[in-house]
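User: Hey, quick favor. My workstation is busy. Could you predict this chain's structure for me?
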Amino acid sequence: MGTDRYAYSSRLKEVDPIPKLWFSLTVLLVCLFSESISVGLVTALVMGVLTVRLGGQRPETVLHFLKIPLAFLVIGCATIVLRPISEETEALCDFHLLGQFRWGITVGYLQMGLMVFCKAVGAISAMYFLSLNTPVTDLTMALERLHVPRLLVELMELIYRFIFVLMDTAGRIRVAQESRLGYQGFRQSLECVGTMLSLVFLRAWETGCTLHWRPEDIPGVLLRCPWSIRMGKNSISGALA
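Assistant: No problem, here it is.
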């Protein structure tokens, strides 16, 4: 479930989880309290190498798990780099929004955005080292050995499990949609809706139905169209068959 299947295949799964926990937390705190871009980059690189070399994880696995937080980091850091500035401030690039407000990127904002980005990447890499090499059951047992309140540990475990229960349910819903409706994504659904409406108007024209319908007339028009519409790749051929 989630990262557990990678943690159970890790070479470090038999190692006591408490040293791994303390090591990850120490690296995390060093990365967060540091004000250097290089510390974040070095931390991310070192933790990635340890995960691959010592844990036996594939580089593709580590990069796969980094994709989602990186997307949020890029958006968040973009709001730090690009901000309103005064007319007297020297900027690397700027523009006027609505002809009145000056937005731009300064050297200070750029350095701050890079520092936040690198610190966050380093912290995420430290947590991924722990999660990709330590099963959740071992981690909860380690927290109990460290005398973390039992209620907090149980809440953490329930929330972790519930997240992946929701993901599994969403996957089942998507399979049902693809099986029943041929759901192929938002864009494909819009194209199919357009095809359906076009065929409704075409068949209504052929059968002599008026095109100036009231809302209550639409069910009757659909009933007079003796064909079925399938929301999938073969929607046109299915509707015209």
